[in-house]
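Q: Convert this sequence to C-alpha cells.
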Amino acid sequence: MRSALLLCLALPLSTACLSAAEITTAPTRAGDTAPRADATPTPVRASLANSRVSSRTLALNQPVRVDFTTLPRQIEGIDIASAVSNALAVGTAGDQWRLIGPVKVTEHEKTRTLLIAFALAPRRTGEFSLPAIPVTWLANEQVVEMGLVTVADRIAVGTEQRPLPKEIDGVAGFAWGIPLEEAAPRLGKTERVGDAVVAKPAQGLSLKFRGGMLCEATLDVASLTLDRARDSFLERWGAPQLDAKDEAGATTSLTWILGWTSIVAQPAATGITLTLVREDLQERLARRQVAGSVFDVLEGPDVAPEPVDPEVESERRTSEAEKDFGKPTIPAPE
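A:
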C-alpha cells in the first residue's frame, strides 16, 4: 500500500494510480470470483502508473493504440524510443504484432514522468497478449504488461465487418510461398532480376520468387490516379494504416497491413503501382541470409575431433612417463 501511495505522489493528479487490490491480486481463471490460493501474486509494477489500450477487440486490419506512463528516468544513456521499438520487434512480440510508425516518448514538464505511445497491427487472428515491455530506463528490471486482445478473422470497412480478402493468401491464383518449380507450368516465361526470378502471367502483374518461393508481387495500372482509386481500395481493404504525404499535402503512398501481407499503393509515371509483400516470407529469407553469411562465418565449420588410436595413445603416455622418470616431485602445499 505504501508503494502505491508513493507512486501516486510522484505522478500528476490526472494519472490514475494503482489500488492496493490491483497490487496484490493474483491471476484468476475465467469464471473465478476470487483470487486462487495457489496462484503466485502478481508483483507490483511500480513503473506503471496508467496504461490505456484503444480496444480489446479488433479486426485484422485494425491497429491497436497503446500508451503507458512511467516514473521519471532512473538510468541515463538509454534511448527509450529505440528500447521500446526493439522490444516490440523480437521474440513473440515480433511474431504477433507489427509496429506502425515510430514510438513516441513525451516527458512531463514538471513531474518528469514519461508517456510512451505506439500503434501495433496484429499479425494473426485469435486471442493473445499485447507485448510485454521491459522498462530498461528504470531500476529493478521492471516490465509493463497490458493484457489480452481478441482479433477477429474479419476486416473492418467503415462500421461493417467483412470477410478477409484473397490477397492475404495469394495473388492471381498463386498462393504465397508456393515453390517456383510447382508454379512454373502456369507462369510462362521467367527472367532473373537481381536476387529474384520474375514471372509476368498477366498484363502489368509481376510475381517475384525469392529463395525459390513466391513472396512479392507488383501490379502496374495505367491511366489511374491514386485519388480516383482510393475509394475502391477503402471498400476492399478498409482504412490504410499509413497515409504518407508530401510537403504540399498530396498523398505519396497508402499502406495496408493485413496480417503478414502488406499492400502499398503509390503513384507512378503513367498511373499507379501496387506492391504486395508477404512479410513473414521476406523475414524468413533475411534470417536465412544472416545465418549463412554472418553467424555461420563467425562460428566456423563444425570440425569433429580426429579419432584416437588406443595403441598410439598408450605409446604417447608411456613416452611421457619415461621423460618424467627421475624428476623431483612437486611438494604439496603446506
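The first strand starts at residue 50 and ends at 53.
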